[in-house]
Amino acid sequence: MRITKEEIAYDLSYLGEDEDLWRQIVEAIERLPEEVRDFALDRCRFLSVARTTHGMVLPGRIGTHEVTNEPTWLVLLSEAIPAEDVHGAIAHEIAHAWLGHDRLAFPPDDCEIQAANLTMEWGFSGVGADAEHCHV
Ligand SMILES: [Zn+2]
User: Fold this and answer.
1) Per DSSP, what are the bridge partners of residue 44?
2) Which residues fall within 8 angstroms of residue 2, CB to CB, at 6 or more apart?
3) What is the pLDDT of residues 35-67, one digit of tens each?
4) Which of 111, 112, 118, 129 has its Cβ near the most Cβ atoms within 10 Å?
5) Separation in Å, CA 85 to CA 23, 30, 66, 79, 80
6) Boundaries of every domain in the chain
7) What is the sign, positive or negative, of the torsion defined by CA atoms of 133, 96, 110, 33?
């Protein structure tokens, strides 16, 4: 089903204050396969601290899903991602969440390669979609 940028913007949970980054997240989500797009809107919360501050605190109205007990994924983004890589970098982080890579537990050794390859499969480019880059 086709979804408009306005609908994505309405459903997106972005906890931050950077309008450029907010718009880029909307654009990246628009380019995802439909089921991943729904996952990103339903199960992910996107966060960033503002360029002008060193940190911020947000009320934690987040957590596990009431019905499935699945985690809500917190996608923490830098506002300093180079412009040419930003969609791919956002999609790369969504790929980690989609694949269930839990940084606080034991993600697979090749999780960076898996995320980069999936990001490329979804049609993104840049470092987020470059498994070679992730070898380092
Ligand atoms: Zn990664």
Assistant:
1) 73
2) none
3) 999 999 999 999 987 666 666 565 555 666 667
4) 129
5) 14, 16, 35, 12, 10
6) 5-135
7) negative
If you measure from the C-alpha of residue 131 to the centroid of ligand 1, how many angstroms do you get, rounded to a whole number?
A: 10
The torsion angle over the Cα atoms of residues 63, 114, 15 and 33, rounded to 10 degrees, is: -100
Task: Report the distance separating Cα 64 and Cα 62, nearest Å.
Answer: 7
- Count of CB atoms situated within 10 Å of the CB of 123: 13
Q: Could you give the CA distance from residue 134 to residue 127 in angstroms, rounded to a whole number? A: 8
Ligand 1 centroid, distance to 134 Cα (angstroms)? 7
What is the 23 CA–ligand 1 centroid distance (Å)?
21
The yes/no answer on whether domain 5-135 falls in CATH 3.40.462 is no
Cα 127 to ligand 1 centroid, rounded to whole Å? 10
Task: Between 82 and 68, name the one with better pLDDT.
Answer: 82
Kindly report the number of other CB atoms within 10 A of residue 81's CB atom: 19
Tokens standing for residue 69: 């007990």
18 CA → ligand 1 middle, Å: 22
